[in-house]
């Protein structure tokens, strides 16, 4: 399970990985870096060296949950 929450810094999100309720890792994800990857045409990125995430869908999710009204 991935839990995404905004950090204290604007444009930075904390992504926490949990497996069966046990916290595994936390990664800070910068929104600007995601936009740069999208601009460069990168379709998929790795999180936690285990999971692959679609960059466009992650940007869409962040926009919808944190920036949309």
UniProtKB/TrEMBL annotation:
GO terms for molecular function: actin filament binding; calmodulin binding; GTPase activator activity. GO terms for biological process: epidermal growth factor receptor signaling pathway; fibroblast migration; mitotic actomyosin contractile ring assembly actin filament organization. Coiled coil: none annotated. One of its GO terms (cellular component) is nucleus. SUPFAM superfamilies: RGC domain-like (SSF143885). This is Uncharacterized protein. It comes from Poecilia latipinna.
């Amino acid at each position: 399970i991935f839990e995404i929450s905004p950090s204290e810094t604007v444009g930075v999100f904390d992504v926490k990985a949990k497996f069966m309720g046990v916290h595994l890792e936390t990664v800070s994800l910068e929104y600007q870096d995601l936009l740069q990857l999208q601009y460069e045409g990168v379709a998929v990125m790795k999180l936690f060296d285990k999971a692959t995430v679609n960059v466009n869908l992650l940007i869409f999710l962040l926009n919808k949950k944190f920036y949309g009204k």
